[in-house]
Write a structure and sequence with these properties.
The chain is mainly β. It folds into 2 domains: 99 residues, OB fold (Dihydrolipoamide Acetyltransferase, E2P), CATH 2.40.50; 180 residues, Beta Barrel (Lipocalin), CATH 2.40.128. The protein has 5 helices and 15 strands. A 9-stranded mixed barrel has the order 7-8-9-10-11-12-13-14-15. Strands 1-2-3-5-4 form a 5-stranded mixed barrel. Strand 9 and strand 10 form a beta hairpin. The longest helix has 11 residues. The protein is globular, with a radius of gyration of 21 Å.
Length: 320
């Protein structure tokens, strides 16, 4: 039985086909992750009304020209937002805002793609939207075991998502945001690190081992990775994952039988990084999955820390 888990948890909650516009005064500006928040006040029929406005994470907003001091309590702005679908509260997603000096701010990361091809897989990369869409469309058609189907039917994002506790996603679920959050591959001799801005994940790959099954019983959240690096090609086998309620997708858990294989190599004469990926987890998935992602090169200085704030994260998930 296939399952579907492509939609972004944030956009699904908002009426993206509606825009509400109004003048407002900044009451609070919170430069934190997983989302930067703006709390504003506006007058409606003589009554002062408060709105909470959600924007992107700090790495995304930094690349869009924002910083932690760009807004101050008390200043006047004009906002355009997508309201929440439920209409239960004055909660919204930012489209754009304009300051009194005419500066228009939105979530619109500047182009970061380098024009020069790379001669190495090491460095900073951003996934293409096209490859993410293709990858997760294919992932969504996986056939689940009965245990996988049962777990999907009872899963509730709002109450069960580990993100509310700033717990990082694991592969392949974590790939879905790799067009917004950058990936960096670092060479440290016997070790290779695969890093993501998203939740500050840093996966360690021991390339002194082979790709044979590991011989220890240690279970880790991101799994235990071994690999080889030859001819500018990195092969990574990861297993020994801790069981995870969304380890194979939204609502699809993973077991300690989960095994992933990744192959990183340059394509298109060095203008892209390709990642070939495969997944097995016989407890929840009937057959193995295979897909690929493509990344474009980005300058290293654009890589930002995430530093998830658990109070902000849990408020985002449970705010009433």
């Amino acid at each position: 039985m296939p399952y579907f888990a492509i939609g972004h948890h944030s956009e699904a909650a908002f009426a993206m086909d509606q825009i509400v516009s109004f003048p407002a005064t900044v009451k609070e500006y919170r430069w934190r992750n997983p989302h930067v928040y703006i709390v504003v006040e506006t007058e409606v029929n003589g009554i002062l009304t408060e709105w909470q406005i959600e924007t992107g994470a700090t790495p995304i907003m930094s690349r869009s020209g924002w910083n932690e001091t760009i807004l101050s309590p008390g200043e006047s702005i004009f906002v355009r937002v997508h309201p929440e679908r439920s209409n239960r509260r004055n909660y919204s997603m930012l489209v754009a805002l304009q300051k009194e000096n005419g500066l228009v701010l939105s979530q619109n990361p500047s182009s970061l793609i380098e024009q020069q091809p790379r001669d190495s897989i090491f460095g900073t990369w951003r996934a293409t939207q096209e490859s993410i869409d293709r990858f997760f469309q294919s992932l969504s058609s996986m056939n689940l075991t009965q245990d996988g189907q049962d777990a999907l039917e009872v899963f509730d994002w709002q109450t069960q998502s580990p993100a509310a506790q700033c717990i990082a996603y694991t592969i392949p679920r974590s790939y879905i945001a790799s067009n917004l959050f950058l990936t960096r591959i670092v060479d440290e001799g016997a070790l290779v690190f695969i890093e993501s801005e998203y939740f500050d994940v840093r996966r360690t790959v021991d390339i002194t081992n082979t790709l044979n099954s590991l011989r220890n019983d240690e279970l880790l959240h991101q799994g235990v990775s071994s690999g080889t690096f030859n001819d500018n090609e990195l092969l990574v086998r990861t297993e020994n994952f801790l069981p995870n309620i969304i380890g194979n997708g939204n609502g699809i858990p993973s077991s300690n039988e989960k095994v992933t294989l990744e192959r990183y190599y340059l394509s298109d004469n060095g203008s892209r990084l390709r990642l070939d990926f495969s997944l097995e987890d016989p407890y929840y998935i009937e057959t193995s999955f295979a897909g690929y992602l493509e990344f474009e090169p980005v300058a290293d200085e654009n890589f930002y820390a995430y530093q998830c704030d658990i109070q902000t994260s849990s408020e985002f998930m449970t705010y009433e």
